[in-house]
Amino acid sequence: MARETPAGDLRLADLTKRFGTRTAVDALDLTIPQGSFFALLGASGCGKTTTLRMIAGLEQPTSGQVLLGDRDIGRLRPHQRPVNTVFQSYALFPHLDVFENVAFGLRRRGIRSVDDEVNRMLSLVQLDGYGSRRPAELSGGQQQRVALVRALVNRPQVLLLDEPLGALDLKLRRQMQIELKRIQTEVGITFVHVTHDQEEAMTMADTVAVMNAGRIEQLGAPADLYEFPATAFVANFLGQSNLLAGVATGVSAGDVAVTAHGARFSVPVGRARADHGPVQLGVRPEKLQLVGSAAQVPVGHQHVAGVVTDASYVGVSTQYLLRTGWGAELSVFVANSGTSTRVAVGEAAVAHWDPRHAFLLPASS
Ligand code: ATP
C-alpha cells in the first residue's frame, strides 16, 4: 500500500448510501475487530456490495464515516487506503504469468527484488511451481488463490472479499472455505467477506452480520446466530426453522409459558426474547426427533403430533415433513445413524424436542 497507517479496528459509523430515492445502506454502525474474519451475509440487493465498495473507496457514502483505528480513511482515494479487494471475477491479468500477476503490486511500489515475497505468497496458497503458468492454464480454484495472494502481497490491513468463491463448484468452494480460513489465521489481517451463502459465512467467519434492506438484523458468532436468532428473518436465513405462532402468557419457574394451537409449551427464559403477547416458538429441524406416538415422548420433552407427508433420504439424514393437525408443516431431520426411527409417508408421527433447544421470538420480528 502507498501509505502506512496504524492498524486498528475497522469502524463504520452511521454509514449511509442512497442511489436517488433508494437507500442501499441505511445508517450502518459496525465495528470489525482488527484481525477478525467478518462476514456480511444477506440476500441479493440487501446492500452488502455497496458497503464493501464504500470501505474500498469505490463508492462515496451519502453520509457517515469509514474509520480504521482512529483514522478517518473515508476521504482517501482507493489506492491510498490500506485496503485491498478480491472480486468474484478474479480480475487476473491474462497476458502475465502467475508470478508476474502476484509481483505486480510490489513492482508498482518500486520494489525491485520481489522473488522471495512472491514465492512466499505462492507457497502460502500451495501454488509453488506454478509461477510460469498463465491464468488460462489454471483451474478456477487456482485462479482464485492467485487473485487472493495478489491482493495480499501488498500487506493491506483489511482484505475485502466480494463473493470470491461464487464461480467455483460446490466441492471446490468447500475446500476454498477451509483454505481461506487457514490463510486468514496465518496472515492475521482483517478479512471482510461478502456472501449470500449462509453456510459459507458460518464456516469461515468469527463474526457474521446478517443484513436485510440496508441494515444489520443481527450480528454475532455463527453458532449464536443459528442457535438463538433475534428475528424470524435471521432464523429463516440461517437454515430451516420451524416457527409456531402462539401467545406467551408469562414466566413461571424460569420458563416462559406459551400457548399455541390449543397446546401448552415452555421455553427457558434465557432462550426467550419475549415473555408475553404474540410470539413465535422456534425449533431447528435437527433438534426435533420423531416417534410413533405420544407415549414414546421422553419425560421433559414437548411434542406436536401430525402425519408424515414427505421423507427425503439425503445421505447423512432423512428429512421429513410432518403436517400438524392445524395444517402447519414441520421439518424434521433424522440422522441416518442406523438406530433412528423410520416413519413412512402417510403414517401418523409425533415430533418432540428438549425445550432447552427451542427459542422464542416476538411475533412482530
Ligand atoms: P448482490 O448480492 O446481488 O450483489 P448486494 O447485497 O451486494 O446484492 P448491492 O449491490 O449493495 O446489494 O445493492 C443494494 C441496492 O442498491 C440494490 O437495491 C441495488 O439495486 C442498488 N444499487 C446498487 N448499486 C447501484 C447504482 N450504482 N445505482 C443505483 N442503484 C444501485
In short:
The protein is of the alpha+beta class and 365 residues long. The protein has 8 helices and 20 strands.
Description:
It is a single chain. The protein has 365 residues and is an alpha+beta fold. The chain has 2 domains: 10-228, 3-Layer(aba) Sandwich (Rossmann fold); 240-362, OB fold (Dihydrolipoamide Acetyltransferase, E2P) (Beta Barrel), CATH 2.40.50. It contains 8 helices and 20 strands. The strands form 4 sheets. It has a 6-stranded mixed sheet, with helices on both faces. Strands 13-12-11-14-20 form a 5-stranded antiparallel sheet, with no helix packed on it. Strands 15-19-16-17-18 form a 5-stranded antiparallel sheet, with no helix packed on it. The longest helix is centred in the middle third of the chain and has 18 residues, at 170-187. The radius of gyration is 25 Å and the shape is elongated. Mean pLDDT is 92; it is low at 1-6. The chain binds adenosine-5'-triphosphate.
**Distance linking N and C termini:** 44 Å
Provide a count of the helices: 8
Number of strands: 20
Based on helices, strands and strand pairing, what is the structural class? alpha+beta
CATH topology group of the largest domain = Rossmann fold
Instruction: Give the count of structural domains.
Output: 2
